[in-house]
Specification:
Layout lengths: L1 H18 L31 E2 L13 H13 L1 H22 L4 E13 L11 E15 L5 H67 L5 H35 L4 H4 L15 E2 L6 H4 L1 H21 L5 E12 L11 E10 L7 H67 L5 H35 L18
Helix pairs in contact: 2-4, 3-4, 4-5, 4-8, 4-10, 8-9, 9-10
């Protein structure tokens, strides 16, 4: 037994002695460095919004229309893009199971029967023309020792990739919810625009009727009549375009929820939406690392590529593989389980790369390049995250200020219109004056509807920039040794 052990270990010892002069990865390393959260300051945001909690997972309820939540849930169930991402998660988990299985021994059994005829040259007696039936029964075993942790590193790389894929699914759900909310808001705005254009068309119809009467009385000329008729025709065209926008918004919304064209026709007019009351959390940007799914997914991919580099490095080291088999081989059925028919073998193998024309070094260089790429992507996502918050906050505050001013303008226009109506009824102004003043009121209300729509979009964008209620499980903050 001692001599057999020495024979098995001798090749390993020789391989280790030769390793110093064999293929190695000296001088190969990655260059990227993870951006620290402190390198992405956000102090300038603190005075723009009051501190508050992070968004809730059902942040869309704050927009004030329960039907929006139902549409988002419908999109979660039917959107094909989301289903595609879910399939990628399943694929990543299947690959993880494969990497896990590779860490364990393999064992299989085989049985067979061979019927044949021996030629004279195959028959040791020299007679030939003999028939035989060979029966085989064997159990095979193989195992590759993970001496350097390469298989575990490959499994951990697959585990981190699977985690990234699962977070990608959460990110896709957030993006889908944001797009549905914005599409729903666009539908609400399209309805408002159509309603205001209808009012303007009614105003111009009255103006044409009045001008035609004045033309018949000789108070206005034909040019004035043609002018207001042209304005009415233009208003009719604008109204047709506004109604088209409603249908397009419906179709876009039905596409997002993963339904056909018929579903678009069932979408009703949204109620008056309101912008979410949004405030910035006090721990921005530190907690943003775990609140933004795209940041979390990018970090998991860095960890996955780091573990992949570790796995590639182990291919430079000696490898031990053990293959064994045991069974029975007989030419007669009654001898199948006899002692003389039994066999076994054990074959340990040691392999060490000596010359491969640079293949292993190229593999490692490619792995380090992928690691650098994932680090750069993480830094880009982290750097852009706070910019997205800043942009959303800036837009939100700007639209809030514009809305305050525009509401004053609408209030003044409404007062002016009410006064013109009173003066017209009192005989102090003409109906023409009242119609002209109404035009300004409609224009101001159109502008206010636009600002309200943009304000809602900005609040939704800020919800998304803050992670939309996502919260990752504890992600190891300590960087891998390779980073």
């Amino acid at each position: 037994m001692y001599s057999i052990t020495r024979l098995m270990l001798a090749p390993l010892a020789v391989s280790i002695l030769l390793a110093a002069g064999c293929v190695n990865y000296a001088g190969i390393d990655h260059q990227g460095k993870l951006l620290a959260v402190g390198d992405a300051p956000s102090d300038s945001l603190k005075d723009k919004l009051p501190p508050a909690q992070w968004p809730r997972a059902d942040w869309w309820t704050s927009l004030g229309d329960p039907r929006l939540g139902a549409l988002i849930e419908e999109a979660y169930a039917s959107n094909p893009d989301l289903q595609e991402v879910a399939a990628r998660v399943a694929k990543a988990n299947a690959f993880l199971d494969l990497r896990d299985a590779e860490r364990y021994p393999e064992m299989d059994a085989s049985a067979g029967v061979t019927r044949g005829r021996l030629s004279r040259f195959e028959d040791y007696s020299g007679e030939g023309e003999k028939y035989f039936t060979a029966r085989n029964l064997a159990v095979n075993f193989s195992y590759t020792f993970d001496l350097w942790g390469g298989q575990r590193a490959a499994w951990e790389s697959a585990l981190n990739s699977a985690r990234a894929a699962e977070v990608d699914l959460q990110s896709s759900r957030l993006i889908l919810a944001v797009n549905v909310a914005k599409a729903y808001n666009q539908l609400a705005y399209a309805w408002q625009v159509s309603e205001l254009n209808q009012r303007d068309l009614e105003r111009l119809s009255k103006l044409v009727e009045l001008t035609d009467s004045r033309y018949g009385s000789g108070l206005d000329n034909l040019s004035q009549l043609k002018q207001v008729q042209s304005l009415k025709a233009r208003s009719e065209s604008t109204l047709i375009g506004a109604n088209e926008d409603i249908e397009i918004a419906r179709l876009q919304l039905s596409a997002l929820i993963g339904k056909g064209v018929d579903r678009a026709h069932t979408l009703e007019r949204p109620s008056n939406l309101q912008a979410s009351v949004v405030a910035l959390p006090a721990q921005l940007p530190a907690q943003l690392l775990g609140r933004r799914p795209d940041i979390v997914a990018a970090r998991w991919r860095v960890e996955a590529e780091s573990k992949n580099v570790e796995a590639v490095k182990t291919t430079f080291y000696p490898n031990i593989n053990l293959v064994a088999a045991a069974g029975s081989h007989a030419l007669t059925g009654d001898a199948m389980f006899a002692g003389v028919s039994k066999f076994w073998n054990v074959a340990p193998t040691v392999s060490l790369p000596i010359f491969d024309a640079g293949r292993l070094r190229s593999d490692l260089k490619a792995g380090n390049a992928e690691l650098d790429s994932s680090i750069a992507q993480y830094n880009r996502v982290l750097n852009s995250a706070l910019h997205e918050v800043a942009i959303s906050v800036t837009q939100l505050r700007s639209f809030e200020q514009q809305i305050v001013v525009q509401r004053d303008a609408c209030s003044i226009a409404q007062s002016s219109y009410d006064l013109s109506q009173s003066r017209y009824k009192a005989g102090e102004d003409t109906f023409l004056d009242a119609l002209n003043i109404e035009q300004q009121l409609i224009q101001d209300e159109m502008r206010l509807a636009f600002l309200n729509s943009k304000h809602i979009d900005s609040s939704v964008s800020l919800m998304a920039a803050l992670g939309g209620g996502f919260q990752a499980p504890a992600l190891e903050t300590a960087q891998s040794s390779a980073l």
